[in-house]
Amino acid sequence: MLRKLTAAVASAGLLFGLAACGGSADDDDTLTIGATSVPHAEILTYVKDNLAAKAGLKIEVKEFSEYEQLNPALASKQLDANYFQHKPYLEESNQKTGEHLVFVAGVHLEPLGVYSKKVKSLQELRQGATVSLPSDPTNEGRALKLLADNGLITLKPGAGQTATEKDVAGNPKGIRFRPTDAASLPRQLGDVDASVINGNYALEARLNPAKDALVSEKAAGNPYVNGIVTRPEDKDDPKIKKLVALLTGPEVRKFIQDKYQGSVLPS
């Protein structure tokens, strides 16, 4: 009897924990969306406060400080959708975890930029300079491509979106790369000669990609647009479709343009 009672209490506790985390789309009419704070949660909060009610949509925004937690939370049904990632990151995540989360629609681009407290151009970087960059596979490859596009290094033919230091074919300045957790890059900017920083973390550190970056990504043809991701069985859910329509509509486009002044670009 004691074992049965303990099992029942444990089961109730698990159910309570899932409910406290927000549940899934089947629990009620509220769409629970996980996001990193800047700009994703800010954009979602604008939609929640200004557009959702008129569209017949109820939204709960859950902020996460570490984006690595968001896909597991979605897969385990603590969220109905998340908003923080681009397709290459999602593909890498799905391959690693065996999940089948789906990218529903792109919303905005956060241009990856190179920042420095020591030089004012890439050409001023000294021989043997240290450049930090995001350590996760897709963003490391993205950072290396940005450096290659601006003439600092060259990459081997065929180096793809998950390029690493091993794919660097030419490095005339002998740049030393320091892969670092993406969220830590702004805090460590003073310890390196330059750093390639994701747009959302640059904004959180009050760095403006449009003004402060030595170089930054261009929007045209960019595969790294951030968007809404959900589970495959929910991709056609009417609430998800309403959310996507709002996020890709003219009001949100204007909000992004006015608030971020080129630091975030509507897709």
Automatic annotation (TrEMBL):
Signal sequence residues: 1-25
SUPFAM superfamilies per UniProt: Periplasmic binding protein-like II (SSF53850)
Protein keywords: Lipoprotein, Membrane, Palmitate, Signal
Pfam families given in the database record: Lipoprotein_9 (PF03180)
Entry's localization field: Membrane
GO cellular component: membrane
Lipid-conjugated positions (S-diacylglycerol cysteine): C21
Main localization (coarse): membrane
Keyword Lipoprotein tagged: yes
Alphabetized InterPro entries for the sequence: Lipoprotein_NlpA
Membrane topology, record value: Lipid-anchor
Family: Belongs to the nlpA lipoprotein family.
Protein name, per record: Lipoprotein
Species, as recorded: Actinomadura rayongensis
